[in-house]
Each structure stands twice: as C-alpha cells, then as structure tokens.
Amino acid sequence: MALLVSLTDTDIQPWVEVFESELSNMDIRIYPDVGDASEIEYVAAWQHPFGEYKKYSNLKAILSLGAGVDHITKDPELPSDVPIVRMADDSLTNDMCLYALHWVLHFHSDYYRYVKQQVKKQWLPQDFVAPRNRTIGIMGLGNIGKQIAESLARQGFYVVGWGANEKPATGGIEYFYGKEQINAFLNKSEILINVLPLTEATTNLVMERELRQLPKGAFVINMGRGSIINENDLLSLLNNSHISAAVLDVFDVEPLPVDDPLWSHPNVTITPHIAGQSDGKTAAMFMVENIRRIENGEPPFPLYDVTRGY
After folding, report:
1. 257 and 234 both lie in a single domain
2. Can you list the residues of the chain whose pLDDT is less than 50?
3. Is 86 assigned a catalytic role?
4. Same domain, 79 and 94
5. Is 273 a catalytic residue?
6. Torsion sign over Cα 198, 203, 204, 210
7. Which entry of 102, 154, 225, 293 is annotated as an active-site residue?
8. N or C: which end of the chain has fewer CB within 10 A?
9. How far apart are CA 284 and CA 84, in angstroms?
10. Same domain flag for 49 and 183
11. pLDDT of res. 172
12. pLDDT of residue 307
C-alpha cells in the first residue's frame, strides 16, 4: 500500500514528515518516483500531470491540496470511479479570510489611492466611510465563502451573499440566489469578492452585462477561479472606469502569460494564486484523517460531487 505525494509549487517536506509519522504502515513515495504503479492507493495532489492517474489501477482516492479540484477533474483521462477529496483545512480557510480582509481594507480605506498619491508626493486625505456604509458582496457562500462573509461582518461591513441555490440566511448576511437574483446582488456590491468553484454553470458567469450591474466605481477581488469572471470584459470596464480597480489571484491561464495586458494595467493588482495557502502540517493531517476514514470503511469529507461540480 502506497501514498504518492505530488505537490507542485510547495515545500513538500512538512507534508512528508506528517505522512511518514502518521502512516507508518504505508509506503510514502514522491512523484516522479512512482515505483510499481499498481501499489499506489492514494495520491496527495496539486497539479499532478494529466494522464498519470489512469496508471494507478488500485487507486482508492485522490486527495486535493486545494479546495478547488479542477486541477484534477480537467484530466481527460481521469478514472471516473475514483473519489476526489477536497481540502477543508482550517488554516487554508483562515488564510483566505485574511487575504479577503487585506484587499477589502485596501479598497475601503483608500490605500490604493494613497499608493498612487505617494508617487506624486500628494498629501491628500480621502473622505472617511464607515464600514457599516460599505457593502461587500460575496459570490459563493460555501464553507470558505461563509467564513469570509462572517469575518468581514464582524469588522462592521454590510455583507451580502449570492449562490446558485436557496439556503438559510446566516449571521445576518443578506442572501441572494439563482440567476433571477444575481442582478439585485450585484447592484449592492461595492466590493465584489468571488470565491465560487469552477463548474460548467459558473464558467463565464460574470461577463460585461453582469459587471455593469455593479455600482459605478466598484472593486473586484477574484480569489475563486479565473474563468468565472471574464477577463476581457473586466479589462473593458476597468478601462472605462465603471470598475475602479481589481485584485486578481486566479486566471484563465496560469501562470499568467507575460504578454497579458492585465500585468501592466494601472488599476490591477496580481497575486500568483496564493489567496489560500495550506499549512503543510495541518493540511497533511487533514489528508491522513481522510485516508483513515477510507481504510475504516467510512466516507471521506468533503467529497467532490460530480453532479454539482464541486
């Protein structure tokens, strides 16, 4: 029985230390040193090469480093009967809450203006806006979106949420759902935060028509997936100042090509898909616990649902 660790763009040593300590009865292998592929029963994965999963004939589960699993499901040769377990480690969720708070404050408190004023040596205080008078719109109120919404509400912001399906309101957060209510949600969102998963239904969900529903001068923070907010339409509305500025952590193509106009836009800030970073030790323990569940005949959590797309 073997666990294959294939985690691109991360220091795998803390992960391996936990796996070796907690799964002493399991052979821990580090990609590309696969060995006998038939012995691989689990893969701890982030950006594992497409076409590889089909080689592991006895695979019991794929354990995703991220909450999103499109880095796995886009593999055209992915075995259809292998469970995919999403990451729901508290440290990753907390990191995403901090990312959202940082950039909300960047826009809400006019720090983005002060950066430009410093270049011009301008001493020009901007008007104060109380958090209760600033509406933050969260697209996607799953586990992560819900916690981001609640953390911003605790800071005094007025928070509204949108999701595909009806669900009970929580924490005093006004909730909109479905295509019929998306315009009402966007009309309120002075700072729009996207944390939706990428599915067929959410691909290009927010295009020019939707972006124009935002209040003039709104801000956009995309920390879900790049293909949800159409990049060309976003650029167009940035250029005509309907949208004041954007922070983008995710893109249609990653890494973002060097000739992409987003790099040089004066009102766009780019981060390299780091909005939610996992603590190797706690995230590895999350995977270990799910492996133990599977070995004990229990269902892992949270499990990717192919019908919902997340």
Report:
1. yes
2. none
3. no
4. no
5. yes
6. negative
7. 225
8. N
9. 15
10. no
11. 81
12. 83
